[in-house]
Amino acid sequence: MRSYFKLVNFELGRFMKIYLVLIGITIISQIAGVIVKSRGYLSEANQAIIVNSMPKEQFLEQFGQMSMGTFTQSIWFMGPIALCIAALIFYCFFIWYRDWFGKNTFIYRLLMLPTARLHVFLAKVTTIFLLVIGLVSIQLILLPIESMILKFIVPIDLRADLGIMEIISNSRYLFVLVPDSFIQFIINYGIGFMVVFIIFTAILFERSFRLKGILLGIVYSVLSIIVFIFPLLLEIFFGVNYLYPTELFVTEVILAIIVICAAIWTSNYLINKKVTV
Amino acid sequence: MIRYWKIISITLIIVLTIGTFYIRSAMAGNDYPEFVFDKQSGNENEVVNLTLLGDFRVGVQGNPLEISSEETVYANELSFFERLRGIYMSAELERLQNSYRNFMRGKDNISGIFEDEKRLVYVDTNGNYVRDRPREYTFDIEILEKDSKDKLDFTVTIPEKNKYNYVYMEDVQVLDNVMKVTTVNHSVNGNGYGSEEIHVYSLDIANQKLVNDEVIQLSPEQSSGQNSYMYLVQDESDIGLTTYLVFKKEYMEEVEQADGNYYNESIGSELITYHLASGEQRPIPLPEEINTLNSSVYLDDSIIYIDKTTDQGIKVSMFNLESQEIETSKTIKLPANLTEPLNTKIMDGKLYVVGYEVSKNTKAPLLVIDVETGKTLFEGIIETKNLEENHLEYEMNIYDMDLK
Amino acid sequence: MIEVKDLTKRFGRKKVLNGVSFTAEKGQITCIIGINGVGKTTILNGIMNLTPMNSGLILIDGKKVSKESYEKITFIPDAITMLPQMTIREAMQFMQDFYNSWNEERANELLGFFKLKQEERISNLSKGNTAKVNLLLGLALDVDYLLMDEPFSGIDIFSREQIADVFTSHLVEDRGVIITTHEINDIEHLIDKVVLLDNGVVLKEFNAEEMRASEGKSVIDVMREVYKG
Fold first, then answer.
1. I need a surface site. Which of A167, A209, C38, C135 has the fewest CB within 10 A?
2. What is the spatial distance between Cα A55 and Cα C18, in angstroms, rounded to a whole number?
3. Which residues of A touch C133 (CB under 8 A)?
4. Does residue B131 belong to the interface with chain A, where contact is any CB pair within 8 Å?
5. Nearest to B201 by CA among B229, B161, B239
6. Phi, psi at A178, each rounded to 5°
7. Tens of pLDDT along C139-165?
8. Domain region containing B159
9. Nearest Cα to Cα of residue C172 among C133, C137, C139, C148
């Protein structure tokens, strides 16, 4: 167990520089964005109300109030989030392949550690998990700060104040990342990590059987997904909706657990018996 | 320990922020206002069972809500599992699902349900699709005998099977051994124009056979060039036996509007009854002054209620299908200050009137009026409580009401 | 004792190992000799369970390889197996973190012996020094068996001498060593046992000392006989 935590810490360290850069880009872009957007709105208001002597009510009707809801739709806000998502998806693959490629084949060392090889697998999954949820946390810390900056720049009669939950539910994408119920949060990320487990297992297929492994990995992934969405497939293609929503939910949870267990079991087998340096 | 700062600090940040966020959002509940029925005169018992369905909105963000005399429930206050069950599940369906859990599996179209003391019946239409085209339409019928718990299921093919590209369930009735299934059948003719027919199919339960296929007929005065559509007046949540089926048919004409586009405009309507036992169809002879055009029609066993908002007030009429006579027809005057458009609905012989909108400057009225006597039983307004500062610019729209 | 029995390994249609068997004793230096591409590295990878074999059996002191084995046997591949951005100190720390058999005292001794500086980054080291660090990370483990893949290839002459010195020192004494090479010259005087490999089979397995004593042939003589004859 200790070596598992050491491995997680070690894997985190290997991505830490890029991770901090990603966080830095997010903070800078979003903070700068909220300032730019608020100032821009304000100067538009000044132009309309003071220079063009448009009544304030008419201006508000035409342009709407400034709010965090407006800001979260902008590229300043969504851009860094998209970048972080893309980087982490890429890293899902790179976290494995970086050990094989390059001059210093670190995979020798990882496979020769006097610890269960499954720990290496689980440590990588955990690392991706912590990196993803860590970014979500950073976003949750940033939102109230950005909200405060907006309040500081835009006067009260030109802005609509939203609570954090309202800001989040205003944005379709943000709402997927941070749903309003904790169970939904666990579902969203549970499905996400089930997919990470599947991808990692597919990568191990490729690393074990190379070209043939790519095919095996794809077949394995498709099978896993089919198992998970089987009740939904039944409903869509055969019109069978035999289960009540709560039962369907429980079934899906069980299927997800089965898929994840199968991934762990398969990976354990591959990394112990089939993987090759 | 210090060497493990990466794992420790990331975990700490995650647990603290995500934890705080969800604990706070659970603790804070929600700061949306509460709406109450504020009585001005009359008896508050009249609104005890009333539920209003609406939408609360600040800016662009809308949030569905349900207002009853006891509480205001917002959709986003529901727990994950309450949402999973569905926010707007019909109370009747919920009761049946609780009492006949296994029989009711996968049966969520309330139009296909019939229930009496002895049995529970479900009829579903099935297109047996092959490459997007239905091969043949069938009725899939399941009957549960309540006492013996025996289940009977059989399938009956709908005649003229190639004609329809969609068949919707509208209603099911069972009289002794005959099942009457009402459907709306869609067909597409050679020109690509769609048309609709309402059919009443009679099925012999004992022999599991279709014995009759009747079309609810158009009345002869319908001229060509007019569009029409017809629908079943019965409330779909009425799953018990009725004596009559009542259909409303509206005639439409394409009218050129000021902007040059053509719109369908209702130019006339009629009511047709179908007596289930005899299979007799006939139009309801309503006098000229009771025009069903642009009015709401309700059926309560053998009484038809009609309400229509006019300049003078709300005109309500009662027509008895047994005696074929008008029992009441009067215009109920509303308080002079009510000029806004209103929701109206007749339920249990009472007319419920409620405004469409509640906001900073608009107060919605709420009235309950006895249709027969015209007496106002309850008069009040919908009042806002606990309105937070950030919701001052709210708007709450009411779009339906119901009795629990 | 390391026992290798009847190993076969195919890459696609090509049979790299075709029933390879030999043993390596503790306290001896066993040298697997063969030209490049003959499957020497594959055998070492197989012993360490770094690549699956198609058939055959590998036993270390009578037991199959498991995670516990990695505290008893270690492998020094021909390239360093540490992240290039690490310093030597960090690499040593990593080994200490994960291996109970890490011997910090011996590691420091080796550092002095090789004249390496702890704070140097692996990516900045010369080829010879990288090989030394690689050797250090393996030798500082208190393991019974050491596998080394071509420890002398592509390294300058002074580093070679330094490394060769290690084999005669207490740092290797008492351990079982398997070493692969395609040129015997540097280490002929060091090795106890020779396994000659070609075309995926063991051509000859013999004890160098006994061979010299009984038949008066050096390792090179035997090789000439086997490969040319």
1. A209
2. 91
3. none
4. no
5. B161
6. -130, 80
7. 999 999 999 999 888 788 888 888 888
8. 91-236+243-290
9. C139
Interface membership of B106 toward A (CB under 8 Å): yes
- Alpha-helical (H) ranges within B164-312 are none
Residue C127: in which H helix or E strand, if any? helix C127-139
Interface of B with A in 43-102 (CB under 8 A): 58-61, 76, 79-81, 84-86, 97, 101
Q: What is the assigned CATH class of domain C2-228?
A: alpha beta
- Which residues of chain B neighbour A243 with C-beta distances below 8 Å? 105-106
Residue B311 lies in a domain: yes
Are A104 and C82 within 8 A, CB to CB?
yes
Question: Mean pLDDT, consecutive 10-residue segments, chain C of 229 residues?
Answer: 95 90 94 87 95 95 95 94 94 96 95 94 93 93 94 84 85 90 82 91 92 91 85
Per DSSP, the residues of A170-234 read HSHHHHHHS-SSHHHHHHHHHHHHHHHHHHHHHHHHHHHHHHHHHHHHHHHHHHHHHHHHHHHHH
Residue B56 maps to a domain: yes
pLDDT tens digits for A9-24? 999 999 999 999 999 9
Q: Residue B276: which pLDDT band, with cuts at 50, 70 and 90?
A: very high
Residue B12 sits in the same domain as residue B51: no
ipTM of the complex: 0.94
Q: What does DSSP assign to residue C71?
A: G
Q: Output the pLDDT for position B222.
A: 53
Residue B296 lies in a domain: no
Question: Structural domain boundaries of chain C?
Answer: 2-228
Structural domain contains residue B391: yes
What is the token pair recorded at A153? Answer: 């720049």
* Structure tokens, B116: 């009496």
- Return the residue matching tokens 């020109």: B191
Tell me, yes or no, whether B143 and B277 share the same domain. yes
The tally of domains found in chain B comes to: 3
The reply to whether residue C71 touches residue A111, judged by beta carbons under 8 angstroms, is no
**Chain A hits for B18, Cβ within 8 Å:** 133, 136-137, 140, 185
Asked if B145 and B279 sit in the same domain, the reply is: yes
* B10 has a chain A CB within 8 A of its CB: yes
Chain A, residues 191-220, CB within 8 A of chain C, namely 208
